[in-house]
Specification:
Length: 101
């Protein structure tokens, strides 16, 4: 017997927004989760790296999940501007969108 599937609604906002914008958007999304009806779903937002901490703080205590927009395959090293999966997990991310445009 298979487990029931859940709908995942995920979105990212590319290289857009400053901290205030990210907090406002995440707050608005988190606020909508309580009034979404009877269909079981998960909501994931994937902000730019610089906004992850602020968005994680907004999502704390809600069912809103926070992810990242991309990652590097290496866990550490001389990869300027890149970020590893362990760094993202440490920042509070539960998911990562990879291989997208």
């Amino acid at each position: 017997m298979s487990a029931a599937r859940r709908i995942l609604i995920a979105g990212n906002w590319k290289m857009n927004g400053l901290q205030g914008d990210g907090v406002a958007l995440a707050s608005a999304v988190a606020g909508k989760l309580q009034s979404a009806g009877d269909v079981p779903f998960d909501m994931l937002v994937c902000p730019p790296y610089t906004l992850i901490g602020a968005v994680v703080a907004v999502a704390s205590g809600t069912s809103l999940q926070v992810g990242a927009q991309d990652c590097h395959t290496a866990e550490k090293g001389a990869h300027t501007g890149d970020i590893s999966t362990s760094m993202l997990a440490d920042a509070g991310c539960s998911s990562i969108i990879v291989v997208h445009s």
